[in-house]
Amino acid sequence: MKKNVIFIAGMRIEVCCVQTVIAGSGAAGLAAAKELYDQGIEDICIVTEHINGGTSRNTGSDKQTYYKLSLSGGAPDSVYKMAETLFGGGCMDGELALAEAAGSVRHFMGLAHMGVPFPQNRYGEFVGYKTDHDPMQRASSAGPLTSKIMTEVLQKEVEKRKIRIYSGWQIVRILHENESVQGILCIKNGSRRMTPEFKIFRSNDVIYATGGPAGIYEDSAYPECQHGASGIAYQAGVTGRNLTEWQYGIASVNPRWNVSGTYMQVLPRFISTDKEGKDEKEFLEGWFPSREDALKHVFLKGYQWPFDARKSKDGSSRVDLAVYQERVEKGRRVFLDFRNNPWKCPIESWQLCEEVSEYLTKAEACFGLPWERLQSMNSLAYEFYLKRGIDLKEDRLEIAVCAQHNNGGMAVDLWWQTNIRGLFAVGEAAGTHGIYRPGGAALNAGQVGAGRAAAFIASKKELETKSDLSHACIPQIETALKTAISVGKNQNEKTADEWISILKKSMSEAAGPIRKLSEIRKLLGRCEDLLEHFDQKVGIGKKGIGQVFVLEDMLYVQKMCLSAMLDYVEHGGNDRGSAIYPDICLQKSAEQIEEKQRKLEGQVQEIKLIQDGRTQAIWRKVHPIPYDDHFFENVWKGYRINKNIM
Ligand SMILES: Cc1cc2nc3c(=O)[nH]c(=O)nc-3n(C[C@H](O)[C@H](O)[C@H](O)COP(=O)(O)OP(=O)(O)OC[C@H]3O[C@@H](n4cnc5c(N)ncnc54)[C@H](O)[C@@H]3O)c2cc1C
Questions:
Q1: Residues 6+ apart with CB under 8 A from 142
Q2: Same domain, yes or no, for 392 and 484?
Q3: What is the three-class DSSP state of 207?
Q4: Residue 255: is the preceding peptide bond cis (ω within 30°)?
Q5: Is the pTM of this model over 0.85?
Q6: Nearest residue CA, atom 46 of ligand 1?
Q7: CA atoms of 140 and 387, how far apart (whole Å)
Q8: Which residues form the pocket of ligand 1, taking CB atoms under 6 Å from any ligand atom?
Q9: For residues 433 and 577, what is the distance between their CA atoms, to the nearest angstrom?
Q10: Which of 384, 404, 424 is the last residue of a domain?
Q11: Neighbouring-strand partners of residue 170
C-alpha cells in the first residue's frame, strides 16, 4: 500500500492509497472483501469504526432468518418464482429482485461451506420454513445469532487472505469529483478535542457497507453501537430510494431484542406504568372486542412481528398501536409481564380461539404462568434475558415499538453501484427492498450485493491504483476539519450527545410507525436549521469529537427521510408497509385516498440533495422483472467475452 502525507488547514493527514476500500465490517462488508480478493483484487483494505461493531455482529432474534431459494422437498421453486416474491413486496426493481434470487443459492452455499451451521436433514437437504411474506418455505436459520456467526466465519476468511483491516476509524466524508469517487476521509476513534487525527483512504472504488441508518430513532431495535453512515453519502450527492419504507415492531428496550415468536405465543400480560414505574394498568382490552380476541392477536404477533398498516384496523398490529399509544401519546412506560397471566386470570378460565388453544395444547404449554410456558416451550428465549440480568419470573420487561430495518436506502443499479461512479452500496446501506420483504431477505441481499459489486470492480480494465487526490476533494476535506476545529471551541451550546437524544426522541414521536405531518414538518425545519448553523450550535460532549460527526450524519439521514415522507404524502401516499399517516384520513375522502394510492402503486420514489441543501424527489415506474436470453450458447459466448458484466 502506497502512503503519503498532505497538509490541509495546518493539519497533517496521512493518505493511504489502495485499489478498493471497503467501508464497514458487517456481514456485507466482510463478504465484499473476500469476494474482491477471490476475484483477483488484492490491493484492498477494510476501514471500520470497530471490527466488532454493526448490526450483523450484535443482533439477532428468536430464530434469525436467512432467505434463499428452496433447497429441499418436492415443492417446485425457481429463480423467477423467488424474484416474483421479492418483487411482489412492492416498489422493488425487477432486475434487483432477479439478481437477489439468482445469487441466493451461491452465497448461501458459500456460507454453509465456510461453516455457518444451516441445518440439513439426514439426506443433506437444507430444509426450510415459511417466514413472513413468503409463499414457500425458503427460510433457513443457524439460530438466534445467524448474522453474528456469518460475520465470524467471514472474518476468518478475510484474515486467511491477510486483508488489512483498519478498525477504529470513523468515516466522515466521501471524497468525489465529477460524480466519481476518490476515497474516504476518516477520523480516529477517541480523537481529542484540539488534536483530532484524520486519515484519507484514496481509492479507485469504494464499497460502502456501513449498515442501516440505525441511529435516527430513539425507539430502536438496532444495537447501540450501530449508527451507520448513510447521511455522509447523501451529503455527497448519492440518491436515496424508498426512504419512507421502514420496518417497526415490538422490542425490549434494554437489552434491545425483538420480542417475537414464543415471547408472544406464551401470552404475556401487557401493562403500562407512570415514569416511576408506578400506577400499573393493563391496557390491551379497549383495543379489542373481547379479552379472548386480544389474546388471539397477541398470539398472532408471534409470527406477524413487523407493524403492518394492513393489520392495523382489525388485525394483530393493533397490539403495536396500543403499545405506541401508551408510550408515545400518553408518555407512560410499557412492559411485558411474564409473572402473571393477562388480567390475572388462570389460563384454564379463558375461552381461547381454536388456533391458540390447539397450538398451546400441542406444545404441552396450556398451563401455569407466561414465564413457565416460555421455559417449557423455548428455554433459550427465557435464558436470553436471564443472562442479561432480567429474570422474567421476577422482573417486568420494558418494551416499545422500535425501528428495526430500513427497507430503502442508497439507490443502486444492477451491480450495486450508486449514481457516484466507483461508489457501491451493499448490505443495509443499499436500498434494494421496497414496501414489504420476506423475513431473511436482508441478509441474502447483503451477500448477493457484495458479490455483484466485487464482480463488477474485478471486471474493470483499468485497475492501477491512483494516488493523486483531485482539487475538488480539498474543500470537502476542509469542511470536516473546520467543523472539528469550530465545535472544539464551543462551550455553551448543546453538545452533540444532547442534540442526538433530543432529535431521536422527536423522530420516534413524529415519524415512526405513526407519521404526523405537522410534527414531521417541524422536525424537518429543526434539522435544516441545525445543519445550517452546525458549527455554531454544536459542542463536544462526553463522547468526544466523533459524536459530532455522528450527529451530522444523523441530521442528513433525518432530513432525507422526513423530506421523502412529506413528498410521499404530497403525491397522494397514505398508510402502507410499516407506517400509517392518521392526518390524511381527516383531510380527504376514502375515494380520494384510494384513487391517489392506486396511482402510486408501481412507482418508486428517489430523492437527493441538490444545491443550497434542498432535496429533490422524483417518481418513476418500478422496473419490471427482466426476462433475459436463456439460450445457453449465447450466454456462454457473452460470458467468455466479459462475463456478461455490462
Ligand atoms: C433486531 C434485528 C433483527 C434482525 N433480524 C433479521 C433477520 O432475521 N433476517 C434478516 O435478513 N435480517 C435481519 N435483520 C437485519 C440485518 O441484521 C441487517 O440488515 C444486516 O445485518 C446488516 O448488515 P450490514 O453488513 O449491511 O451492516 P452492519 O452489520 O450493520 O455493519 C455495518 C458496519 O459498518 C460500520 N460502520 C458504521 N458506520 C460507520 C462509519 N461512520 N465509519 C466506519 N464504519 C462504520 C460498523 O461498525 C459495521 O462494521 C435484523 C436486524 C435487527 C436490528
A1: 64, 66, 116, 117, 118, 119, 149
A2: no
A3: strand
A4: yes
A5: yes
A6: 54
A7: 26
A8: 23-29, 48-50, 53-56, 59, 61, 64-65, 147, 170-171, 209-212, 221-222, 226, 228-229, 258, 404-405, 427-429, 439-443, 446
A9: 12
A10: 404
A11: 187
Q: What distance in Å separates the CA atoms of residue 48 and residue 38, rounded to the nearest whole number?
A: 21
Describe the chain by its helix, strand, coil percentages, rounded to 5.
40, 20, 40
Identify which of 555, 411, 424, 419 has the alpha carbon closest to the alpha carbon of residue 24.
Answer: 424
Of 602, 620, 636, the position where a domain reaches its end is 602
Give the bridge partners for 12, in sequence order: 7
**In a 10 Å sphere around its CB, with 0-12 CB exposed, 13-18 middle and 19+ buried, how is residue 239 labelled?**
buried
> What pLDDT score was predicted for residue 450?
98
Give residue-wise pLDDT tens across range 488-498.
777 767 999 99
Q: Are residues 364 and 485 in the same domain?
A: no
The domain tally of the chain equals 2
Q: In sequence order, what are the beta bridge partners of 493?
A: none
**368 and 487: one domain?**
no
CA–centroid distance, residue 16 to ligand 1 (Å): 26
The verdict on residue 626 lying in a domain is no
d(CA 315, CA 296): 10
Instruction: Say if residue 493 is in the same domain as residue 357.
Output: no
Whole-angstrom distance, CA of residue 110 vs CA of residue 182: 32
Cell numbers describing residue 440: 431473511
Q: Give domain status of residue 478, yes or no.
A: yes
Nearest ligand 1 atom to the CA of 446 is 26
Name the burial class of residue 185, with classes exposed (0-12), middle (13-18) and buried (19+) by CB atoms within 10 angstroms of its CB: buried
CA of 10 to the centre of ligand 1 (A): 36
Q: Domain check: are 260 and 385 in the same one?
A: yes
Strand-pair category, 164-167 with 139-141: unpaired
Residues with Cβ within 8 Å of 489's Cβ and at least 6 positions away in sequence, in order, are: none
The neighbour count for residue 378, using CB atoms within 10 Å, is 20
Residue 299 backbone dihedrals phi, psi, to 5 degrees: -60, -50
| 374 and 493 housed in the same domain | no
Q: Cα 336 vs. chain centroid, distance in angstroms?
A: 25
**Residue 582's CATH number:** 1.20.58.100
What are the CB-based long-range contacts (under 8 Å, 24+) for 413-417?
414/95, 414/96, 414/99, 414/452, 415/452, 415/453, 415/455, 415/456, 415/645, 416/449, 416/450, 416/452, 416/453, 416/456, 417/453, 417/456
Taking CA atoms, 402 is separated from 39, 102, 146, 440, 506, in Å, by 39, 32, 21, 18, 14
Locate the ligand 1 atom nearest the alpha carbon of residue 256 and give its number.
Answer: 1
Angle between helices 473-489 and 545-570 (to 10 degrees): 110
Is 366 among the domain residues? yes
Cα–Cα distance between 537 and 639 in angstroms, integer?
A: 56
> Consecutive sets of 10 residues in the chain, 646 residues long: mean pLDDT of each?
90 95 98 97 97 95 92 95 96 98 98 98 94 89 95 98 97 95 95 84 97 97 96 98 98 94 94 96 94 94 92 94 96 97 91 90 92 94 95 98 97 98 98 95 98 96 79 94 87 88 97 97 97 93 92 98 97 93 76 75 94 93 92 94 92
Q: How many CB atoms lie within 10 A of CB 249?
A: 25
Q: Is residue 9, in this structure, part of any structural domain at all?
A: no
Give the range of the structural domain holding residue 484, as residue numbers without chain letter. 473-602
Q: Are 400 and 251 members of one domain?
A: yes
Give me the DSSP letters along 156-194. HHHHHTT-EEEESEEEEEEEEETTEEEEEEEEETT--SS
User: Which residues neighbour 286 within 8 Å (Cβ) at sequence distance 6 or greater?
Assistant: 322
